[in-house]
Structures are given as structure tokens and as C-alpha cells.
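From the shared-data thread, chain only:
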Amino acid sequence: MSDASAQISDGVRAAGLLEEACHPVPGSPDASRIEVVRELARDLGRQLATLSDLAGEDATSDVLAEAAICCADLATLAACNAPDLPPDAAPRAASAARLAAGAVGALGPMVESKSADLGDGHAENLLRDARSAGWRAGFAARLAEEPSAERPPG
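Structure, as C-alpha cells:
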């Protein structure tokens, strides 16, 4: 397994953690929203699994950037929804946010090194996407670390 595939696989594992954490409680006012979050986590996991297969030994910068974006989306989804999950499930969502953010942090430099051979415009766009994903994932990881009592009301 290549280093890129391993990092993307961390995103797949994060998606699985979030999906496991999002079991709606029947009768809960948040049940339908939590089910939507669960489906989004499942979809992101599938997309990341496909990107992991594409990464192989010679992953393109496009595949790596797309994986970073998906992982950043996953980290944000997990961090923003962890406070609304039951107390026994919230830590899994927070772990998913941190794991996905770690994957983004590792994928960013890979995008940068693979983008060196591309045309200026394309490389700039990929680097911008990777940096944005890194910022969003980092913010999500910090948000996942905050105690829910300190968060501003939603």
C-alpha cells in the first residue's frame, strides 16, 4: 500500500467511525438529521475508498487533492455534529474529525510535491484546494477538541 493510499485509508476509517457514531435515537427530534449525517459519512467513505484505489503507487495530484477535500469535508461534518450525538457516540465523532484532519495534513505535502510538474494554472488551483482543505480540517480538529459546554449556541 502506498503512503497516499494509507493516508486516504485513514479517511475511510474516519468515515466509518462517524457512520458508527450516527445511530439516530428513535423519537429524538434530531433523528432525521443524524441519519442524514450518517448517509453523508457513508458517501464520503465510498468516495475515499475509490480514491484510495486510484492512488496506488503513482497517485496523481488531482486524486490527492480530491482526497484531501473529502477528508476535510468529513472532519467538518464530524466536528460540527459531535455535540448533538449521544454522550457515548460523541467521542467517536470527535476521533473521526481528528483522524480525517490528520489525513489532510499528510496529503497536503503530497499534493504540493506532485503539482510541480503541472502547468501553472492547474498547479495553483490544486495547491489552493489543498491549503483550503488543510485549514478547514485543522479548524474542525480544534473544534472537536473543545468541550461542548464552551461552544457558542448553534
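The two ends are 41 Å apart (CA to CA).
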